[in-house]
Structures are given as C-alpha cells and as structure tokens.
Amino acid sequence: MKNENKGSTEETTPPKKQCKVCSKADFRYKCPICLIPYCSLLCFKKHKEISCVKPAPAPENAASTITTVDVDRPCYVDVADEVLERSQLECIATNTEIIDALKDKELQKLIHKIDSSADAEIELDKAMEDEAFRLFTEKILSTLNQSGSQQS
C-alpha cells in the first residue's frame, strides 16, 4: 500500500481499525454521540463512564454551506490507478453543477455518513440506492470523463 497523500510514494500501512477504548481489538462500532470507535458492549459501557461530547457542527454561513475537509488526513488505496490526479480533483471542485448539488443538506448527510462509517464501502452501496446520490456520482464521473478527453 502506498500513502497517496501529497504525492508521497513511501510504503505505509493503512491505519489500524483499533478500538479507542481498550486498544486491543479492531473496532466494529462508533459511539452515536462522539463517534469514538469501540469494539464491544463492554468497551462502550466503559466509554460511557466518561462524558462524551458530540462534535460541534460547523457554524452555518449564509454564503456557503459547504464545509472544509481535512486534506492532511492520509488516504490509503489498494490500487494506485484509483487515485485521482490534482487536475481531475480541480475539475470536480470547480464544476458548478457539483457545487450546487453539494448544497443539498440530505446529500451532505449521506456523504458524511459514508465518510464517518466504519465500513464506508457498505455505506456507499446503500447510498447508491438513493437517486440523488446516484445522479451526483454520475455527474462526477461525467466531469472526470470530460477532463480526461480534454487532456488527451
């Protein structure tokens, strides 16, 4: 596996899906309040002994409802060809139809649910059943195809 963050090609291992309570087992669940990962009911109960806090939502800004993303968070992929190039990401980020679609609160919630899930692939499969999400992904793919044909 390669760390594809910021163009680095050094060999790294993917982050461990370790329980943040006992640090012994892989987590399978996340606290519904603070999203801390845990592995069992016992760890959940232990976690609840300490008061957990719901992450504060980003302040609503009338000019923009799109929140920023932690771009320094490492991204791990199995196949290097699946990593988008900077120019492709810029095409997506500047496409007005995609920007407008991302203003939809339900779409934002769906994307957040996928991103914060312990098993994002399962959540992505579920999201694909939603027509608005499916149309959103088709628009991204269309934009990528257009940017690919322009670069050729």
From TrEMBL:
Limits of the HIT-type domain: 19-52
CDD domains: zf-HIT_ZNHIT2-3 (cd23024)
Classification via PROSITE patterns: ZF_HIT
Record has Cytoplasm as a keyword: no
GO molecular function: zinc ion binding
GO biological process: box C/D snoRNP assembly; maturation of LSU-rRNA from tricistronic rRNA transcript (SSU-rRNA, 5.8S rRNA, LSU-rRNA); snoRNA localization
GO-annotated cellular components: nucleus; pre-snoRNP complex
Keywords assigned by UniProt, alphabetized: Metal-binding, Zinc, Zinc-finger
Family matches, as InterPro entries: BCD1, Znf_HIT
Protein name per Swiss-Prot or TrEMBL: HIT-type domain-containing protein
Organism of provenance: Tagetes erecta (African marigold)
Organism phylogeny: Eukaryota, Viridiplantae, Streptophyta, Embryophyta, Tracheophyta
